[in-house]
Amino acid sequence: MCGQFTGWPAQAMDVLWQLQGEPSHATRERCRADRERLVRQPMIALLNEVADTDPRYEDFSVWHYRTDSWWWQNQSAVIRLGRKIEIGLRFSLDGLRIQGAWWYPDPGQVDMFRKAVASEGSGRELSAIVEDVRKRGYDISGDVMKRPPRGYPTDHSRTNLLRHRSLIAARPLGCEEWLHTPEAVDRVLSAAADLDALLTWLVRHVKCTA
After folding, report:
1. CA distance 192 to 41
2. Distances (CA, A) of 114 to 100, 109, 124, 162, 208
């Protein structure tokens, strides 16, 4: 069982450094135990502490390793808030990164999103939320169509949002000394608060029971 989060040990960076490029099978196996102890287990401990602050954060996953070297070099985790609506965390040599995402939508979710964006009340609310998140330093991205979707006017005031088939707000949290201390929990919770209005809107309007 993973203990209380105290930060990522400085040695975690040494392990990730050894896994850069295309590490051989022998290198991966040599680093496996240290990576589990120094990189993945601290992420589990951090997510457990975050989950203790809000019942919405209790459904989370911290990924294991896969064949692709990227998964060895980046420790990813997600907190699920709704169908395909998540907070994502990634720890790597670049530090810690967070994103709020609605992506890989279930059937029908894109239509629900577009209807909510087109509606004056919910659409204006999302537009204001996205602008606020952008001002807080988050990059807004996603799977975006080149043209407005069929059935919606090309001059719609929120055509940029209507073109989204997924919506992601992301930013790096940094790679400073706090990563190696319990302060990282507070940094994650502060960023989660930045994303809360966006994710709450998505949970409310992009419903799916599949």
Report:
1. 21
2. 19, 9, 12, 6, 14
Note if the pTM is more than 0.85: yes
What is the rounded CA–CA span in Å between residue 182 and residue 11? 16
Q: Report the alpha-carbon angle 107-133-210, nearest 5.
A: 15
Residue range 35-86, pLDDT digits in tens: 999 999 999 999 999 999 999 999 999 999 888 999 999 999 999 999 999 9
Kindly state the helix (H) or strand (E) to which residue 15 belongs, with its residue range.
helix 11-18
What is the rounded CA–CA span in Å between residue 42 and residue 14?
15
Tens digits of residue pLDDT in 72-126: 999 999 999 999 999 999 999 999 999 999 999 998 999 999 999 999 999 999 9
**Sequence-ordered list of residues with C-beta below 8 angstroms from that of 94, at least 6 positions apart, any chain:** 172, 175
Q: Is 188 exposed, middle or buried (0-12, 13-18, 19+ CB in 10 A)?
A: buried
